Amino acid sequence: MSKSTKQPTMKDVSRLAGVSLGTVSKVFNGIPVGDEYKSKVEAAAKALGYQVNVYARGLRASKTNTVAVILPNVINPFYSNMADYCCRRLNEKGYRMLLSTTSYDPDTEQACVDMVQQNKVDGIIAITYNPKLEVNEDIPFVIIDRKFHANIPCVSSDNYTGGQLAAEKLIEKGCKKLLFLGISSHVPGEADKRSVGFENYCNSQGVGCTIHRVWDEDGIDEIFSFVDDSTTKGKFKYDGIFCATDALAVQIIDRLNKLGVSVPKDVQIIGYDGIKIFGLDKYPCSTIEQPLEQMATTAVDILLSDKDSNHPALICLPVRYCEGGTTK
């Protein structure tokens, strides 16, 4: 039986590089040394297959260069894109990402926060639906889309303006009887402002508007029932729909098609998020696009900023309208 290969140590790197152990330590900890010494250490480490134990080093320095990102899931393209953009920005900053998913369950959210706090992460970025979430005040925390604590910065798109923009575009394209469709959580969030902006703009223009929102537990079936009840012999009661998300818009388009209602000929539809079709540079529906990359970058930059930095409680980033073939 062959002996197991011994893992190389910093002393081995020092010996092969022909430099002191202190110089090796400086290189691995990012402390400036001469270029010649740095090159020797890096070459020796590579030759030996030596890897820095970032976690052990972090425990000594009370820093692990790891940030936890907690999301409901990574099946929804909005969340998977958010995770990807966060990961990219963290990599640029020399950090690693620890990803956890919660399936929208408040208890799982708290368990994830407790777990990552015990693992000594340097901060947490989360989308959470738990209004009673307990977070250690000593750990940097940034929340996306849902403000729940005065001392925790929230990064969001400008949902209210997005709702206004959706109404403006539908009216501009000739719609006269508008409908908002959405599935909401019982926990208030920034996304709730989409319907408020939509309704207020319709009212300001004297255009008829119906808001139909259901709770999470009712789900898509209740929305489908409303759509079915609003359709008679292939004629839909409304000529313009603003859906709270692109995912909902795609489902509504499919439902209307099955009922013999043509989109956008009979009904024009705008979603919200700006998620592109996988592998293609186009949208599955006309949409209000959230600046996902900017939201993720902003969240990371705030999280890693100086502890004494004074950030606004809510950072609202601009949205824009994008054509996607479901409006005229």
Summarize the structure.
The chain has helices at residues 10-17, 21-28, 35-48, 54-61, 77-92, 106-118, 159-172, 193-204, 219-229, 246-258, 292-304, and strands at residues 66-71, 96-101, 124-126, 141-144, 154-157, 177-184, 208-215, 231-232, 235-236, 240-243, 268-273, 286-289, 314-317, 320-322. The chain is α/β, with parallel strands linked by helices and 328 residues long. It has three domains: 10-52, no CATH class; 66-157 and 293-317, Response regulator (Rossmann fold, 3-Layer(aba) Sandwich), CATH 3.40.50; 159-290, Response regulator (Rossmann fold, 3-Layer(aba) Sandwich), CATH 3.40.50.
Tell me about this structure.
There is one protein chain. The protein contains eleven helices and 14 strands. By secondary structure, the chain is of the alpha/beta class. The protein folds into three domains: 10-52, no CATH class; 66-157 and 293-317, Rossmann fold, CATH 3.40.50; 159-290, Response regulator (Rossmann fold). The mean pLDDT is 90. The strands form three sheets. It has a six-stranded parallel beta sheet, with helices on both faces. Helix 9 (219-229) crosses helix 10.
> What is the CATH-assigned architecture of the largest domain?
3-Layer(aba) Sandwich
Helix content: 25-40%
What is the CATH class name of the largest domain? Alpha Beta
CATH homologous group name of the largest domain:
Response regulator
Rg, Cα atoms, Å: 25 Å
| Strand content range | 15-25%
**Which structural class fits the helix and strand makeup?**
alpha/beta
